Structures are given as structure tokens and as C-alpha cells.
Amino acid sequence: MTTRTVLVINSGSSSIKYQLVDPDSGASLASGLVERIGEPEGAIKHKHGEDVTELTGPVADHGAGLTEVLRLFDEKGPTLTEANIVAVGHRVVQGGKHFSGPALIDDDVVATIERLVPLGPLHNPAHLKGIEVGRKLLSDVPHVAVFDTAFFQDLPEEAARYALNREVADAYEIRRYGAHGTSHQYVSGVVADMLGRNDLKQVVLHLGNGASASAVVGAHAVETSMGLTPLEGLVMGGRTGDIDPAAVFHLTRVAGKSVDEIDHLFNRESGMKGLAGDNDMRAVWARINAGESQAREAMDIYLHRLVKYVGAYTAVMGGLEALTFTAGIGENDANLRAELCERLAYMGMRIDGEANALHSAEARIISTPESTVTVLVVPTNEELAIARQAMTLVQG
Ligand code: AMP
């Protein structure tokens, strides 16, 4: 079969992350990052095999950034024609209740993503920039939007609906949309394949700078920890996760803070950063090892939240057969995995210390054969998942 590739674009407010993926083999042919778009000194890094090109200099806007990336593909390879590019896949965080799967991008889809900006104010405007310049500069191939919320579109209503006044909730589309759905779907699919089961009751813990948990039965998500926005749920690098919304009233009335200030406080200055002084888990462990009691307390709060979610999701599913760790912390932090599983030992969960300590980029089982729950580490690969979904949509 001739190689077919998909260019996956994750466009941020001042960055464009990209990867050229062969969805059939799963290989990444090239990847790169444009950073600090619109700032005086931008940077572009393009990787093709062992060959890495780094450029610095101003990148005026997303259009200029992508033009430069396409030039690098031509100059440094692989050329997109040689690579037989058949689609461009765009990551989109917020699809609201409109998209339960990938969508072929046309003007209507763009208008809908635009209409959803109030629900995804940090992400959707940036994705729209990437889509606009992408469609202009790569007009020969179809463009596909893959939504972070899609996997959670079929959450049972009892999980998706808040107990908020129905009229207000419906008028303003306030419900639990979830996020990281592409990762949860991909990882739970890998677990089902590895264990050879399509009816598993599983929990996936996507623990990165942003963090979320999902409960998946068979191929369907039945619960997830992120809500209307990615603020809800687990303790994260800089986000509070669950907090009584009355804290907002209190900070408004008593501390005189504005909504924007509270937004910043909850989304950027809280979580591990606000509790331990650092949002990077490696730095938090270093503080713990140096004897900082607040860092240890922060870790306990982080773990306590995870114990609550795993327990709650086990109850929701009526059992738990597989627990999987993914993303930056989930894939790399053996200490944290060991401490969490120790706290879950009441379930009959048993970790194999050696397997857990192993550093590997492979998906693997880290529990003992006696463990009542299979515990796994599965590296997430959102780019591959986006490429596969885009390919399936355009070529079947
Ligand atoms: P992500 O958002 O998935 O890219 O994850 C980024 C986060 O992973 C960083 O902020 C770190 O907290 C965490 N991380 C990366 N490597 C390690 C490691 N070796 N040990 C602990 N945490 C790590």
C-alpha cells in the first residue's frame, strides 16, 4: 500500500504545533513547533528523522508561521507531495454539543466553532486561526476538525447535566462537555486491544499539566472529570479542579476580586503551583525530598482527589477491571503511581514494583497477576488519534 499521511495541526494563541503522521503504520514522519507568534522574537523547530532545523526571528502571525513550516517541509523534507498528504487534521478543544465525531471543515463548521468561542475562550479562537490559514495554504486537501469533547458527547444525561436550573442551563448551554477526549478514547482503545476485551470497565487517568479522569465501559465514556470547562475535576498543574463555586461569590464580595482575576487565580495560580509553589511534578518531588511539608501536603491533596474519583467511578460502573495512567505525569512518575495504587490496595490492586519503575515508551501492564484490577501505563498519542480519525473521515 502506498503511504498516506495526515498533517496534524494544534494551533494555540501564539503557537502552532504540527506533526506529519502515517495513520496506517502510526509513524511520525516529521514534527515541529512554531512559538511566540506575534512577539519580537519567534522560534521555529522542524524535525525530520534525526535532522532538526531551528530558526529564530519574528513570526508576524499564524499565516507567516505556517508558510514558513510549509517551506521547511519543501526544503528539509519530507515534501508533502512525496509524503502523499491526504488530509489536514485540526485539534479543536471545544465542540459543545454539536460534534460527536470528527467533522469535515466547511464554512458552516467554521461558523459553529466560532459560535462556541464563549465556551472555549482560551482555545477556540486560536484553533480558528490555524484552520483559516491552513485552508488557505493547503487548499488542495480536505481539512478535518477533531474535537476534544467528542468522546464525551454520549455521556449519560445523568452524568452530563448539572443540577442547575434547567431553563438557565439550556439557554446558556451549561453542561459537562469534558476535555482530553481524544486522549481518553485513544488510550482506552489501546487498553481494550491489549487485554483483548471490548466490554471492559476501565478508568483512564490523563495526568499532565492539565489532568482528567474518565470512566469507560466498552467503547463508551460514562463519566469524566472535566466539565463545562477544563477547570473541573482533578487537582492540576495550575488549576484548582473541584471547588465550591461559592468561593467565587466569597472572593467577589469579601476580597473585591473581579471575575477575570478569579478566573486567573483558579486556572493559573492554583493547583500544585498554588499549593506547592511549582506546577511541574518533578519539582514538587524535589521539594518533598528536601523536606518541604507544604509540598508533601500538596501531593496528598492531589492523591486524595484521585482516590475519590477512582472510587466514585468504580461505583458508577459497578466495578473496575483496568486502571490506566497516561500523559506527562501518568507516563513518567513511578512514585506517584505507586503511592496512588497503595491507597487503592483495598480494592485488591497490586503493583509490580519492578514493572512500575521501568522507563519505557511502550504501553505496558504494571500490576501483578494477582491484582484484581489490571493497572497499565499507556503513552497517549493525540496526534495519531487525530490523524486516524481524519483519515477515516476522508477516505474510509
Ligand atoms: P503534559 O501536559 O502531558 O505534557 O505533561 C507535562 C507534565 O508532566 C509536566 O508539567 C510535569 O509535571 C510532568 N512530568 C514530565 N516528566 C515527568 C517525570 N519524569 N516525573 C514526573 N512528572 C513529569
TrEMBL record:
<keyword id="KW-0963">Cytoplasm</keyword>
<comment type="function">
    <text>Catalyzes the formation of acetyl phosphate from acetate and ATP. Can also catalyze the reverse reaction.</text>
</comment>
<feature type="binding site">
    <location>
        <begin position="280"/>
        <end position="282"/>
    </location>
    <ligand>
        <name>ATP</name>
    </ligand>
</feature>
<dbReference type="GO" id="GO:0005524">
    <property type="term" value="F:ATP binding"/>
</dbReference>
<feature type="binding site">
    <location>
        <position position="382"/>
    </location>
    <ligand>
        <name>Mg(2+)</name>
    </ligand>
</feature>
<dbReference type="GO" id="GO:0005737">
    <property type="term" value="C:cytoplasm"/>
</dbReference>
<dbReference type="InterPro" id="IPR023865">
    <property type="entry name" value="Aliphatic_acid_kinase_CS"/>
</dbReference>
<keyword id="KW-0418">Kinase</keyword>
<feature type="binding site">
    <location>
        <begin position="328"/>
        <end position="332"/>
    </location>
    <ligand>
        <name>ATP</name>
    </ligand>
</feature>
<dbReference type="GO" id="GO:0008776">
    <property type="term" value="F:acetate kinase activity"/>
</dbReference>
<dbReference type="InterPro" id="IPR043129">
    <property type="entry name" value="ATPase_NBD"/>
</dbReference>
<comment type="subunit">
    <text>Homodimer.</text>
</comment>
<dbReference type="Pfam" id="PF00871">
    <property type="entry name" value="Acetate_kinase"/>
</dbReference>
<keyword id="KW-0460">Magnesium</keyword>
<feature type="active site" description="Proton donor/acceptor">
    <location>
        <position position="148"/>
    </location>
</feature>
<dbReference type="GO" id="GO:0006085">
    <property type="term" value="P:acetyl-CoA biosynthetic process"/>
</dbReference>
<feature type="site" description="Transition state stabilizer">
    <location>
        <position position="239"/>
    </location>
</feature>
<comment type="pathway">
    <text>Metabolic intermediate biosynthesis; acetyl-CoA biosynthesis; acetyl-CoA from acetate: step 1/2.</text>
</comment>
<protein>
    <recommendedName>
        <fullName>Acetate kinase</fullName>
        <ecNumber>2.7.2.1</ecNumber>
    </recommendedName>
</protein>
<comment type="similarity">
    <text>Belongs to the acetokinase family.</text>
</comment>
<dbReference type="InterPro" id="IPR004372">
    <property type="entry name" value="Ac/propionate_kinase"/>
</dbReference>
<keyword id="KW-0808">Transferase</keyword>
<keyword id="KW-0547">Nucleotide-binding</keyword>
<feature type="site" description="Transition state stabilizer">
    <location>
        <position position="180"/>
    </location>
</feature>
<feature type="binding site">
    <location>
        <position position="91"/>
    </location>
    <ligand>
        <name>substrate</name>
    </ligand>
</feature>
<keyword id="KW-0067">ATP-binding</keyword>
<keyword id="KW-0479">Metal-binding</keyword>
<dbReference type="InterPro" id="IPR000890">
    <property type="entry name" value="Aliphatic_acid_kin_short-chain"/>
</dbReference>
<dbReference type="GO" id="GO:0000287">
    <property type="term" value="F:magnesium ion binding"/>
</dbReference>
<feature type="binding site">
    <location>
        <begin position="206"/>
        <end position="210"/>
    </location>
    <ligand>
        <name>ATP</name>
    </ligand>
</feature>
<feature type="binding site">
    <location>
        <position position="17"/>
    </location>
    <ligand>
        <name>ATP</name>
    </ligand>
</feature>
<dbReference type="GO" id="GO:0006083">
    <property type="term" value="P:acetate metabolic process"/>
</dbReference>
<feature type="binding site">
    <location>
        <position position="10"/>
    </location>
    <ligand>
        <name>Mg(2+)</name>
    </ligand>
</feature>
